[in-house]
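#struct-pred

JT: dropping the chains for the assembly here, can someone run the whole complex?
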Amino acid sequence: MSLLTVGSVAFDAIETPFGKTDKIIGGAATYITLTSTYFTDKSNIIAVVGGDFPMAKIEFLQQKGVNTAGLQIKENEKSFFWSGKYHNDMNSRDTLVTELNVLGDFDPIVPEEYQDCKYLMLGNLAPTVQSKLIQRLKKRPELIVMDTMNFWMDTMWDELLHTISLVDVLSINDEEARQLTGEYSLVRAARKIRTMGPKTVIIKKGEHGALLFGEHEMFYAPALPLEDVFDPTGAGDTFAGGFISYLAKTDDPTFENMKKAIIYGSAMASFCVEKFGTERLENLSPEEINLRVSMFLKLVSVGGNMEL
Amino acid sequence: MSLLTVGSVAFDAIETPFGKTDKIIGGAATYITLTSTYFTDKSNIIAVVGGDFPMAKIEFLQQKGVNTAGLQIKENEKSFFWSGKYHNDMNSRDTLVTELNVLGDFDPIVPEEYQDCKYLMLGNLAPTVQSKLIQRLKKRPELIVMDTMNFWMDTMWDELLHTISLVDVLSINDEEARQLTGEYSLVRAARKIRTMGPKTVIIKKGEHGALLFGEHEMFYAPALPLEDVFDPTGAGDTFAGGFISYLAKTDDPTFENMKKAIIYGSAMASFCVEKFGTERLENLSPEEINLRVSMFLKLVSVGGNMEL
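RK: done, full complex below.
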């Protein structure tokens, strides 16, 4: 089923203990749509870039099957740019540069051909832009998944809560869930978020995996312990991308199927961190993905009787 | 099969955001043997207490089936005492008081009737005492599991490495595994520990679960996300106790069975944290334990085809 993603398409410059990049392409919508191409051939993007953005990268997305009709190019402006440096433990980072550029007054225009989208992914972006997009869809998508981050809690609290109230699934990391709810226990935090609107809550715990909460159900997808995390940039976006794309592919947004979707999200994120930026996500095979998913399943599987 | 545990039997005074205790009983061997009573009726303890330790608590262990022939009582000395205060997040704590008392010159004497023990649990204790115990067993147990902590890395590095070289399974938390090996990646850390002696490594990640590493295998047991963690004291000991006791019960120390054992360890630890000290571990039923284990299994189970 058709998937629509809104989010940033941008330049990143990344420094990790393993090396340093010049400006490479990044942005939530880049990671999400790139990931989606392994699941669906009906992936649509709404984003904005400046005239400095390389056409070859847009054409690459098109070749992978992404419909870029909603990707605005502002010829005389510059693309969003983020630069960051990861600490030795790879779990924390400093932001060195944030230049909003075209994102500053981004107006998400919905091409007519996108109006029938059934699955909507709101990549990390100003909650005002996210809610505007929902408003502009004539028919509410069957499932709206929203990713966000602490930055919006610090700067647009009311707008963030309003957008959260409109979505079906909120994807957020553990520290952000605590900040959003004032609850330390993730079980309590998820329950509180469910009173804010979303019927399903995903709490991302980085190297410790992710939790999925429904009304009475809870599911834990581990992360695959890795020898090296080369570059964590985009891992959360890739995770969200794998999650919603698997739901769109199977057209089944039940809790049972979301469990599988969260494993696909985790598997795709585990590829993402193996190389700088989007590199590892650019040429995967279905066999590689299936093999990785089977590693995730094996990681937690026990056989035989477990009664005392 | 018979299980022998060596470790502290002590007094704790605990303060958490939920309340405060006077001196209550604690100590690694207390948590481990109490846990073991749900799995085996051949549980033996080697420990030392002072004349201040309440006989009723020793009798309680005996009633639960623990053989206390190896529990020395030094009438004119005082029991080991630890006092700590947990921070609001329950993940970190300050040690307020540590009085070694009888533990200071603890000489672990092995009663003749313990000599046939097949499973040996070295609870957290000075590595010199742990290795002395191994030496005093005429026949090496089939499986030796060792728990330790950062304190011994800071104070008895060489002795710690020697003891580690003698055991089959090392149980250690994630930060300690990093400190012991200088490797941030837990995959690399476990591999390095395996070159130090233990063929199997358990890395405890607290609220994030535990990892089990064999030669080519890896297993992830999640922790059960809880609404409240009332008191984490003893959770690691209880985990180790559930792990080795399940192996002793089933008399099967293969990697496949260790996967199940680690789930039992996690389940027992999840009870431990629900009340202060050992309280929650004192009166469990097999039905409660089976139900808890089934919750752990359900937490990670997905059904049906997962191929793309």
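JT: nice. The CA atoms of residues 50 and 78 of chain A lie 4 Å apart. The mean pLDDT of chain A is 96.
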